[in-house]
Amino acid sequence: MWMPRGFADQVRDQADIVRIISDYVTLKKRGANYVALCPFHREKTPSFHVHPGKQIFKCFGCGQGGDVFSFVMRMEGCDFPEAVRLVAEKSGIPIPMPSKGSEYDRAQQRRQWREQLLRINEWARDFFHQNLQTPQGQKALQYWHRRGVSADLIEQMGLGYAPSSWDALSTFLRRRGVPEEHLIRSGLVVRRSDGRGYYDRFRGRIMMPITDSQGRVVAFGGRILDDASSDRVPKYVNSPDTAVYTKGHHLFGLSYAREAIRQAGYVILVEGYFDFLIPFQAGIQHVVASLGTALTEAQAMLLRRYARKVVVNFDPDPAGRAAVLRSLQMLVQHGFDVRVLTLPRGEDPDSFIRRSGRAAYEQLVDRAPTYLDFVIAQATEAVDLSEPRARARALSEILPYLVLIPDRIERAASGDRVARRLMLDPQLVQEEIRRSMRRLREPGSRSATSDQQEPTAEEAVTSRGLVTQAETLLLRILLHHPSVATRLKDELRASRAALAMTTTYPLFEEILARLERGEPLTYATLASAFEQDRMLLDVLERALITGGEPDEERVYREARGCLVSLQQRQLEHDLNKVQWEIEQAQQRHDVASYNQLLLRKLELSNRLAQMRSRPMVEVDA
Q1: Full domain range(s) for residue 42
Q2: What is the DSSP annotation of 364-376?
């Protein structure tokens, strides 16, 4: 995406990070910050913080942090320019166009076509919906009611009917001024094979509008009315890929269900249109449909905006079971807490709820086993586990799901469960897991690349063991209290030697340089200098996300106390060094050096004693 210089900074400054992030997770106010369960790893206690003043987020569990663009890039799986575009659109900030040339023309044409296509889809939805009230549409309306869909839901979702005509929709759209070229590009009509004319793609079918997460109509699904004719024509026909729709990138019903998903804390994932419509109508509204396919990576990332727990309820037939297994791998790899609901043979969510009711379905949802229990059951079904070869074969079927578990503790515990179930040596199972993971991490493996992007628990806490309390507090004060930082400039400059001994000295050096130039200490400006240093970036994010003391004089005294603590640490280090040099001079029988070093030791000892006697704020080094 083309963007002018400085536009990203403008969007970052104007965007409300709390509002943007609340589109993906449920934030709750806590002091100066907002907190939530982290969308990047599984947790029960909120460790994900958003600081509106500093425009930064930070998870104190997994270590992920950054600005609004970093968050959107991770949630959407997009690059930086696309994240800027998304944040600008969500914030109502107009995206500037190139001022001239062919690039401007192409960008303008793409934008205009997307807007036109969305209008065409809205007109088509209205056309299909209104057809239910025509004499020809009565049969379709009866079909909707026979399948248990109420008039209210038909109205709410704009469900409709495409008449049995080759050109009913295209004629309607032409009257709206849509040219032939746009009709064909919309996917709603199909060019004839001989190139002369076109015909409507959807004919004689009930129609389901497919919306994106914002509720805009991007595509359609059409189903035949007479199942007996499915041998001659496909039962379902869906829109092709267009400028606003890509197969496998959307979830049916998400725009209607997203608030219910957030409130419930999990989502029920089903396959087809009616598997969404009937539960939704029954009051089970935290449900979405994968549009009849195994879950794609784009759909999994879309779900991550709204929930971290998924109950998968696909058809129990062999095809549905295979789709479940493929979807499980995708969900586990993205860190979801996954359960699998298997209905009685021959039932799907649509038929089960109409037959047994909402309460019975919800009971099954509550008792749905974990994905691991489901996978183990599938692998051991009709298998004689007394046979070593059968146990080995079952383990080979389960391993692909174990190695995808992102959390190593959960992965190890799951391996032990599998070992007990298959009556195998737990160490043997753990070794097989490690061997499989090494194969996945070989160069060129997509899993290896994604695995490296997730910080381990050890990486997330690395900085905490290396940074002293005095460093941490001083950084927080400098970043949250610019007036105190300005007052301390001379003392900071005089304390460069002490600061240079700290692990975080590059941060202090950058802060001092910016203070001397009178530049603001914002995350965006500071983070750019440490993009390649995860430890320093982690320290910076932790310091920024933590609020400060409102009393400036108290803060100033605390900051000076931190400097004294760091200076004491430096003197102690110098004393240890001098003592070592004294011992070396003794061994060499170098009397002159020995006497000079003793004087140096006395000087340092006196300075350290004086410093310790000062009534400063105590801060542990």
Answers
A1: 7-90
A2: HHHTPPBHHHHHH
